[in-house]
Amino acid sequence: MDFHGKVAVVTGGARGIGKAICDAFRARGAQVCTIDRLPNSDFVGDLGDEKTLEAFCEQVLAQHPHIDYLIHNAMLTKGGLDTCAYSDFAYGMRVGVIAPYYLTKLFAKAINPGGAVVNISSPRYVMSQANTESYTAAKGGITALTHALAVTLAGKVRVNAIAPGWIDTSGVTFSDADRLQHPVGRVGQPDDIAQAVLFLCSAESSFITGQVVTVDGGMSKLMIYHNDDGWEYNP
Questions:
Q1: What is the pTM for the complete model shown?
Q2: Residue 222 and residue 218: Cα distance in Å, rounded?
Q3: How far is it, in rounded angstroms, from Cα 230 to Cα 181?
Q4: What pairs with residue 161 in β-bridges?
Q5: What is the rounded distance in angstroms from the CA atom of residue 100 to the CA atom of residue 62?
Q6: CB-based contacts of 198: which residues, under 8 Å, 6+ apart?
Q7: SS3 state at 181
Q8: Among the options 69, 91, 125, 135, which is catalytic?
Q9: Residues near 146 by Cβ (< 8 Å), separated by ≥ 6?
Q10: Which positions ≥6 away from 29 have C-beta within 8 Å?
Q11: 69 included as an active-site residue
Q12: pLDDT, tens digit, 9 for 90 and up, residues 8-55
C-alpha cells in the first residue's frame, strides 16, 4: 500500500497504537499530523477541549489545505461505578466520542474524495469487565458514530471502525496461558492495528464502509472455562 502524496491525521499519536499508526503511514510515504496530550513533534493539546480541537484543525489545514485520512485513536479510561465521578465520565465521552465527531465535522470539507475515516473502537462495545463504564460507553458511542458518519458522508468518504483486542504496548513476556487465550497463539502488537488501519484507508477496501472490524487474534471467539489452557478462576 503506497500513500505517497497523502495526508493522514491521527489522534493520540505519541505512543502505543497511535504511534504505530503514524509510523506505518510515514513508512509508506504519507505526511502525518497528530495531536496528543503527551509530548510530540506536532501538536500538544487536550482532545477534551473544543478550542484545542479547533486550533489543531486550523494548524493542520494551514499546512495541508486538504487531507486524505482521519484516524480517531485517542482515548483513556476513568473507571466505572467504583471510581468514576460525573465529571470523569463526561470527560471520557468528550475525548472518546465528541472529539471524533467534532474533528470529523471540522475536517469534512477538507477530506479529499475517496478519503477515509477510521475510528478505533473496542470489543468492549459488546462485552465488559466490571467498573469500566466510562471506557465501554465511549467505545459504544464511537461504534454507533461510525455507521452514522458512513451514511452522512456516503459518496465522498468511507468510515469504518477497528475493535482491537489485547494489544501489548509494554513489551513484557507473556505466559503460555496468555498466548493460548488467542487462537492465533500470541498477544497482539500495535502494528497489528496499524496494518488494519492502512487497509481500511487503501483502495483495496473501497467496498467497505460503516463496518466494525475486530482485530483481536480471535480472543473474543474462544470460550475459556476454569482450568482451560492454564487459566484458573480466581475471583
A1: 0.96
A2: 7
A3: 9
A4: 119, 212
A5: 20
A6: 1, 3, 24, 25, 28
A7: coil
A8: 135
A9: 119, 121, 159, 160, 161, 210, 211, 212
A10: 2, 3, 4, 5, 6
A11: no
A12: 999 999 999 999 999 999 999 999 999 999 999 999 999 999 999 999
